[in-house]
Amino acid sequence: MKFLSKLLLLAIIATASVSCSDDDDAPVTPPSGDPTIADLVTENDQFSSLLAALERTDLVTPFVGGSGNLTVFAPTNDAFSAFLQDNGFSSLDEVPEDLLREVLLNHVVTGRVLAADLSTGYVNSLGIGSASEANLSLFINTENGVTVNGVSSVTTPDIVATNGVVHEVDAVIGLPSVVTQALANPEFSTLVAALQRASTETTNYVDILSGSESSPFTVFAPTNSAFEDLLAALGVQSLNDIAPETLATVLEYHVIAGSNVRSGDLTTGLSATTLQGEDLVFDLSDNPQISDASTINANIDVVDVQTNNGVVHAVDKVLLPNEILDVIDPTITGLAMMNDDLSSLVAALQYTGLDDVLADRAADYTVFAPTNAAFATFLGNNALEDLPVEVVTQVLLNHVLSGTALSTDLSTSYTNSLATYGDTENNLSFYINVENGVVLNGISEVTGANNEAANGVVHIVDEVIELPTVVTFATADPNFSALAGALQAADTDFVNVLSGTANSPFTVFAPVNSAFDAITVPDEPTLSAVLSHHVIAESNIRSGDLTDGASVPSLEGSNITVTLPGTGENIADLTDGAGNTEIGVIAVDVQATNGVIHAIDTVMLPEE
User: Fold this and answer.
1) What is the C-alpha separation between 567 and 548, in angstroms, rounded?
2) How far apart are CA 64 and CA 58, in angstroms?
3) How much is the pTM?
């Protein structure tokens, strides 16, 4: 950008350019008599106050009257009178000598720099502030004449001496604060406006960053273009569209209090706590950058603008803490917190610690979020804290899918939630049916879809999706409707047995509807025997556990034998107790909390 190119040019003025010979730098012929800068000050009545100040601080000979090249911005008597009045001094003698000395040195730049050589940007004076042993920075603005630090204008340039040049100025250049440099540089005008808008009667950020309390400050100052990018991202026209308290939080995130952190102090991985309370992390592996709570780093474009109460570094992005991102670009947790009808869900997330999990911006989730009414039904007369935290954790995880799935991405099928089976890493299955709306595990319907968040999407649902049993999937999946009817018709209470934990876990080989269509469903007691022959008790046998030739007894008593691989497209073949072969396993690993289901294409018959 134009601003930065000017800064790069000015950055070398105090080094290479200012050390050139008089013949190269001084097209203006020095006055007769070869006066030094000290001579010019002494012989000009307009500089009598400056001379008195130099004499009082012993700066005449070593710094102004000696050899070498210097550039002096020389305040007039009127400038000194205004300085004394503005600071409550009746005379120069009342100004502390150490302070006066640094103020005077803040008017001196190493090297001879004529007005024509000046351009907009930063140079270092010989002054040393109280925040650091580093030289103070001067901001030169040449857009309309020559102005220094936004407070002092050159009225008579290029008064040439044998050992440098004097530029007469109309105001004393006081020791700059952070605010001085923000006000002086037009590229920080939006930052200044933000500081003013965020200030209150009790917290005035301009006053704070101008003073010494909690100083020194390290300020990462966003440029005007950085603020423009922020406004565009928020879809607003101006700072007036942002609440003052929001601006205050953002601005405090740009300030490190109690430290004058210069560029040489930064290292990759360094973490620093801001005035707002959250941390900034630095990365110098390529260009110097700052990591905030967002996924976009800020480049540090200009470094080490040294002031009397801190140091300023210019950045090309407004840094955003989590506190603000959760409002303007909320995570799933933030989205839930902003919805009054999800307050019970928020309480459950906080109870289990999953609020932090669903606030992770590096992750990607789909969450089916039960309403307050859904939680009230789920809890009944219990309080949330009456339930073990481990149980609530698994129930909540059973509402979460990995990845982002909008309603248009959903289809009638099985997937896995983040809940797990027992102490294993096997995720529980999750059945989605989109034939008539979106119904989950046969019990919970989506009522508010596609609430997008920074790390996924939220679908609001009308029922808490409890942890599934084998019966949950038998009743939820229309492909098992004939099986569900048979289970309910049997004299044996299979629904109660396969919903419970006695003799669990169960491995169920579940015939699909077409399998029942191929037979005449028997009456009792044969029906119960047939259904029992499809269940293996006290075993959660997943597809990876099947081995060729394995033979295991069913709940009915006769064995089921496994053949691997299966014929055709079958995952495996089974031989039932009656000796029927090539019974195809066509889908596997529908995992419930009390067992696992595998779909088969034929009803199996026991030995008797």
Assistant:
1) 13
2) 10
3) 0.68
